[in-house]
From TrEMBL:
Record's protein name: Methyltransferase domain-containing protein
Keyword vocabulary terms for this entry: Methyltransferase, Transferase
Source species of the chain: Sphingomonas turrisvirgatae
Matches recorded under CDD domains: AdoMet_MTases
Family annotation (SUPFAM superfamilies): S-adenosyl-L-methionine-dependent methyltransferases
Length: 198
């Protein structure tokens, strides 16, 4: 599944990037995320795409970005735009970073491209990358299941755990829930989680 998703984003990198540059519905959540971080903090962006609009918002506020994306064309766009930051072509499941490296981790419109079992394995990895007190934010579906979306006429896989399963995963690896909003109408109907490492 990740290989097909990577190929889709690689084929349609510029169309996806153009669409993202036209829409920033997640800005209120990004503002909340940024307020919880130390000035000049280090942020890991899993599924960073071309860096628009999320990385630009965070770079403009003085944060230091490490972006990870599986699609080479996306990483090239981010490197061109934000050359002072670190951009890594990698599957988030195999990306390697030292423990307690980041003040914040964001996985916006990316974690949900993994199946439920892979998401269960990713949550402890995200927790391990966070410094004590660090913040993570991601979006998911409102309930357990698989949904097939569409982009540029091609099928696009999405999966989600149930809220109870996410909460159990957080508890198992020392993450505390700060905020949860199911199908936020102010954010295009996406479901958002904000958690902190204890």
């Amino acid at each position: 599944m990740p290989d097909r998703i990577a190929a889709l984003y690689q084929r349609h990198a510029h169309a996806f990037d153009a669409a993202r540059r036209r829409s920033f519905l997640e800005r209120p959540w990004l503002e909340r995320f940024a307020r919880a971080l130390p000035v000049g903090g280090n942020i890991l962006d899993l599924g960073c795409g071309g860096g628009e609009p999320i990385a630009r918002f965070l770079c403009d506020r003085g944060f230091h970005m490490t972006g990870v994306d599986i699609a080479p064309s996306m990483i090239q766009l981010a490197r061109t735009r934000f050359f002072r930051h670190r951009w890594v072509e990698s599957d988030m499941r195999s990306f390697a970073a030292d423990a307690a490296t980041f003040d914040g981790v964001i996985a916006w419109s990316s974690l949900f491209h993994l199946d439920a079992a892979a998401q269960q394995r990713m949550i402890p990895r995200i927790a391990a990358w966070l410094k004590p007190g660090g913040i993570a934010m991601f979006n998911a579906g409102p309930e357990r299941g698989v949904r097939i979306g569409e982009f540029e006429g091609e099928a696009l896989y999405h999966a989600s755990l149930s809220p109870a399963e996410y909460r159990a995963a957080f508890a198992s690896c020392g993450l505390a829930e700060l905020a949860y909003r199911a199908e936020d109408p102010q954010c295009g109907g996406v479901t958002v989680w904000l958690v902190a490492r204890l």
